[in-house]
Amino acid sequence: MLALATACGAPEADRSLDALAQGYVRAALQLAQHQPELVERWAGPQDWRPGPREPVADTRRKIGALTAALDGIEHSGDIAIDRFRFAYLRGQLTALDVAAGRLLGESTGFAEEMRRAFVLDRLDVIEDGAARVKAALAAALPGTGPIRARHEAFRSRFAVPLERRELVLREALEACREATRAHVPLPPDEGLTLRFDVDSPWDGEARYDGNHRSTIDISGRGRMDVTRAVTLACHEGYPGHHVQQLLIEGALVQGRQWPEFQLAPRFGPHLLITEGAGEAGVTLVLPRDARLRLYRDRLLPMAGLPPEAAATLVDVEERVRDADGAIPDAIAAYLDSRASRDDTIESLGDLGVIDPDAFVRFAERRRTVAVVYPVGRRLVERHLQAGHDPWSQLVALFTTAPFTLQ
Q1: What is the spatial distance between Cα 244 and Cα 238, in angstroms, rounded to a whole number?
Q2: Residues 6+ apart with CB under 8 A from 378
Q3: One domain for residues 100 and 135
Q4: Has this prediction a pTM greater than 0.70?
């Protein structure tokens, strides 16, 4: 589990951590020249961007020096440091070292990579009862035959007609915004721009544009069903990535003047928590009864689909969410050479993965990053449930206790 940190700070430490934070950003941008997927966005000073590519081994030595310098600050005892910021930089540098090692051809087992890449001491959030969750999903799906085929047929029944897609997604976004605004203060000028049929590897992707605005790109590949519209609205918008960035910008970039949070990394604890919070936000903002009403009263009629199917839709949706806890074990078996590619694709299809072939290709390329959604969701849900107010816990993750889980 991510270690719980306590906060304290001093100007001397801030200056030291500022220098190391800049070093971390520069190293991440340098490594991203070899693997662009590592960094989604850098919104800070342009002169921090690297020049010509340098060898990965040279960048890795810099990462090691930065880590050693962080440890030196921690153990010096001469100054107090902000423990939240220290833990964040330490975890991100460790993950960056893992990424550099992979680029240099190093290989490690799935569990060890999870431990180092995401600073996880335990993996007890992974569901080991694959047969149980598959059986539950099969029981919820109408019909007979293979689970994957039945799930695809079920989703097809609730596909949103192309001409109604934007209308349904905007309605889902407004429902998520309404529910989020009751718990999180949002700037009056915040908002989203939607772009459809974008050539993107993701179903949907939120990009923060600054000034309280984000753009959500919707892929032109595949169909959008009603459940997916709600998941995208929550995960990418409210209380997901758009709201996360509003909180980070206000509290950490402008409030604390921490430049490392102008980087949007696709690695490390940062990725685990942002994606996990995006997934956990779906049921936080729209618990079962609220989702059922949203489907029945607003989205299904708007899509021209039968509103009486809302309860079945929610039942299947919840069984799919339960089943995704077994995905990491399936991917671990494949990456550790304990399962064949074909068997892994079949297993993922039975767990409700929409495109298991593409999922395996992604896991082959990014390895443990492929499982940040189910693992991160369970970690964040556990964290939110541990406090007296899950909404306050969520806001604190991106403001007062940044990227720290209990």
Answers
A1: 9
A2: 125, 276, 325
A3: no
A4: yes
Q: What is the pLDDT of residues 47-65, one digit of tens each?
A: 999 999 999 999 999 999 9
**One domain for residues 135 and 46:** no
Residue 340, CA atoms < 13 Å, CB-side half-sphere: 3
pLDDT tens, 286-305? 999 999 999 999 999 999 99
Question: What's the rounded Cα separation, in Å, for the pair 222 and 201?
Answer: 11
What φ, ψ does residue 144 adopt, rounded to 5°?
-130, 170
Indicate the DSSP class of residue 159: B
* Tokens describing residue 320: 């799919």
From 107, 140, 159, the end of a domain falls on 107
Q: Which residues contact 301 (CB under 8 A, 6 or more apart)?
A: 307
- What is the domain count for the chain? 2
Calpha distance 387→406 (Å, rounded):
9
Residues 6+ apart with CB under 8 A from 125: 325, 375, 378, 379, 382
Query: With contact defined as beta carbons under 8 Å apart, do 340 and 348 qualify?
Result: no
149 shares a domain with 47: no
